[in-house]
Design a protein that fits this description.
Shape: globular
Bound molecules: heme C
Largest sheet: none
Order of helices and strands: HHHHHHHHHHH
Strand content: under 5%
Radius of gyration: 20 Å
Number of strands: 0
Structural class: mainly alpha
Distance between the termini: 26 Å
Length: 213
């Protein structure tokens, strides 16, 4: 990695305090010379061997069943233990793999899930805006329904955000298909420009203050 994690704090000062020109130069250097795929593949071990492949893939559960806030809030909350117990009070009740889940439910201590995706604090991101615009989870997180362990599928770099913001059309889908992992624009013959449910033109920000405040 060329920029170690601590350098995340340096740009805060730059973005907030330095003259615009200097920030522009930093951004230019960063944008053109930093590696695009720094954290792709990051898959920290989790305290419980929870499988998206099993739950979202084989069992076909919708993402929103667990990530309940993703349509309405900036943050896509990870579910509380009670959501797991909706089923696991009856299903696989003596599985050793669920021991920590049962204990967490009894004690009320949250399960210490490890964050996979994480933007630096100085970059703003809002799930609800993207979901409302019809950007699928798969565009940014990959085929979660095939992952035994969640890994970061995209770089989440500034260049990656901007690539889509400059030309979002190919990434758009009907609002109803946002969590559908199998959906494919070509197979569906979907043209966002001709979708009568699209009420307005989209205008993803490309100016600095759109994402940095
Ligand atoms: C049964 C509940 C459940 C369902 C259904 C579910 N998830 Fe999750 N998801 C979790 C839990 C628990 C975690 C935290 C543990 C982990 O990372 O595996 C998580 C983590 C994630 C993460 C990583 C979060 C981070 O730390 O960065 C992403 C991305 C994600 N889920 C996307 C999805 C998508 C997309 C779907 C639908 C295809 C989905 N999830 C369906 C429970 C669920
Ligand atoms: C809609 C029902 C449902 C929900 C909600 C649910 N699961 Fe499951 N889970 C299942 C089923 C069904 C299995 C497969 C059980 C089996 O193989 O006997 C399973 C299996 C598992 C296993 C593997 C158990 C084993 O011994 O192989 C783990 C671990 C697990 N779930 C964790 C979780 C966690 C953590 C949550 C909450 C984030 C959760 N599950 C939410 C239905 C659910
Ligand atoms: C436009 C790209 C994009 C889309 C679409 C998207 N995500 Fe994310 N997701 C991200 C980014 C970026 C982060 C890291 C956010 C941060 O650190 O502030 C993230 C983080 C998460 C997290 C970790 C908790 C959080 O909010 O930081 C979960 C869970 C998650 N996403 C689930 C989903 C689900 C489910 C969908 C589809 C309904 C979805 N995401 C759609 C880019 C996206
Ligand atoms: C796959 C396409 C795609 C990716 C990737 C993407 N965006 Fe967006 N973004 C959009 C679209 C579409 C909109 C909607 C614009 C609108 O509603 O007019 C949007 C809107 C936004 C907005 C405006 C929010 C508001 O309140 O109006 C911000 C901020 C934003 N994105 C930040 C990010 C950041 C930061 C990243 C990278 C971590 C990112 N986006 C990645 C497509 C994308
Ligand atoms: C679409 C959203 C978006 C826009 C617009 C945007 N940025 Fe960023 N920027 C980001 C994200 C996300 C990161 C964090 C990337 C990472 O963690 O790899 C970032 C990182 C940075 C950094 C830190 C570089 C580093 O070494 O990590 C600087 C400086 C920066 N941006 C400046 C700018 C400037 C100046 C502009 C206007 C010309 C701008 N940004 C426009 C999303 C955006």
């Amino acid at each position: 990695m060329i920029f170690p994690r601590w350098t995340n704090h340096v740009p805060v000062a730059l973005v907030l305090g330095a003259p615009f020109a200097l920030v522009g130069v930093v951004a230019f250097i960063w944008y053109y010379f930093s590696p695009q795929y720094t954290q792709v593949g990051y898959a920290p071990p989790q305290p419980v061997p929870f499988s998206h492949k099993l739950h979202a893939g084989d069992l076909g559960m919708d993402c929103v069943y667990c990530h309940t806030t993703v349509e309405d809030a900036a943050f896509a909350a990870v579910p509380p233990t009670a959501t797991c117990m909706n089923c696991h009070a009856q299903v696989a009740t003596d599985s050793p793999q669920l021991a920590l889940v049962r204990r967490a439910y009894e004690t009320g201590e949250p399960i210490p899930w490890v964050r996979v995706h994480m933007l630096p604090d100085y970059a703003n991101f809002d799930h609800s805006v993207h979901v409302a615009a019809g950007v699928g989870c798969a565009s940014c997180h990959g085929r979660i329904d095939q992952m035994e362990v969640v890994y970061q599928a995209e770089s989440l770099s500034m260049g990656w955000c901007l690539d889509c913001h400059r030309n979002p059309e190919p990434h758009l889908r009907p609002r109803s298909e946002v969590t559908n992992m199998d959906w494919d624009a070509q197979a569906a013959g979907y043209d966002p420009a001709a979708d009568p449910h699209r009420m307005r033109d989209l205008n993803p920000p490309q100016h600095c203050s759109g994402c940095h405040q």
